[in-house]
């Protein structure tokens, strides 16, 4: 396959950025999108040019590091992570636009790399449970009803990639935040912080500069792990209950 890539290049957050055009040839349809970018970078290095900076880690669709907007869609045309998107999803001769996440709370570090530490601060503000120190408790010490365990697991699948923010027209982090809140609130171990958790995490989310949610639904459509939209409504109910009780 021969492709034309238009890639966003930006040296740092305060520098002006723009799209740069590259031609790549000899791309196998079985390559992942990141392997295709590796091929581009090998060619750039051989020419003495700076390679394109992009985030990646496990390349197994687990870590959520590969944050790319491909042809205007978070992670590209398939509902998966960028590392699991294969070049057979494109046609020979295609022109492909590659950009970083676009959100005020995700400043560009370099090229396609953005700073997503805002997610870390949201989790730090309430994404924990009260647990005794010492040896690990027995697995069955706290019985968890099967429906609650299933609900917790469904939300725990969130990998924090940020596709929900990139896809949202408002740059909202509600889907991510609700997944982290509902994951713990569904379990008995998360009950002691149930009220303060939702208040603190939503407050931190707002402080980080994410946009408001209007339930456009683009977040759930782009989520590679299928976190459902009703996760947000569940969190909103938790928030209203906690705010009425004044649990701060």
Verbal overview:
Helices cover 35% and strands 11% of the residues. It has 8 helices and 7 strands; from the N terminus they run E-E-H-E-E-E-E-E-H-H-H-H-H-H-H. The chain has helices at 33-46, 117-126, 146-156, 163-167, 174-185, 194-207, 218-222, 230-245, and strands at residues 3-9, 18-24, 69-70, 73-74, 95-99, 108-110, 113-114. The strands form 2 sheets. The chain has a 5-stranded mixed beta sheet. It is elongated.
- Sheet/helix structural class: alpha+beta
Uncertain runs with pLDDT below 50, 5 residues or more? Answer: none
Q: Count the DSSP helices.
A: 8
* Residues in helix, %: 25-40%
Question: Keywords, please?
Answer:
alpha+beta; five-stranded mixed sheet; two-stranded antiparallel sheet; 35% helix
Provide a short characterization of the protein structure.
With 248 residues, the chain is of the alpha+beta class. Helix content is 35%, strand content 11%. It has 8 helices and 7 strands, in the order E-E-H-E-E-E-E-E-H-H-H-H-H-H-H.
Layout of strands and helices, then pairs:
Elements: E1 3-9, E2 18-24, H1 33-46, E3 69-70, E4 73-74, E5 95-99, E6 108-110, E7 113-114, H2 117-126, H3 146-156, H4 163-167, H5 174-185, H6 194-207, H7 218-222, H8 230-245
Parallel strand pairs: 1-5
Antiparallel strand pairs: 1-2, 3-4, 3-5, 6-7
């Amino acid at each position: 396959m021969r492709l034309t890539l238009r890639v966003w290049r930006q040296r740092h957050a305060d520098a002006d950025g723009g799209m740069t055009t590259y031609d790549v040839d000899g791309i196998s349809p079985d390559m992942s999108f990141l392997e295709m970018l590796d091929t581009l970078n090998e060619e750039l290095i051989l020419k003495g040019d700076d390679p394109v900076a992009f985030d990646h880690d496990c390349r197994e669709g687990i870590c959520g590091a590969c944050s790319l907007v491909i042809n205007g869609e978070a992670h590209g045309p398939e509902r998966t992570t960028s590392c699991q998107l294969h070049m057979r999803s494109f046609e020979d001769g295609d022109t492909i636009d590659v950009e970083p996440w676009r959100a005020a709370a995700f400043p560009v570090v370099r090229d396609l790399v953005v700073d997503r530490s805002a997610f870390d601060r949201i989790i730090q503000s309430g994404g924990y449970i009260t647990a005794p120190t010492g040896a690990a408790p027995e697995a069955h010490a706290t019985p968890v009803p099967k429906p609650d365990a299933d609900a917790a697991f469904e939300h725990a699948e969130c990998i924090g990639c940020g596709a929900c923010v990139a896809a949202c027209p408002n740059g909202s982090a509600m889907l991510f935040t609700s997944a982290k809140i509902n994951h713990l609130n569904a379990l008995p171990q998360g009950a002691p912080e149930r009220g303060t958790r939702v208040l603190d995490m939503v407050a931190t989310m707002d402080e980080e500069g994410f946009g408001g949610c209007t339930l456009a639904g683009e977040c759930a459509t782009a989520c590679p792990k299928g976190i459902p939209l009703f996760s947000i409504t569940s969190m909103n109910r938790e928030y209203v209950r906690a705010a009425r009780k004044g649990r701060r």
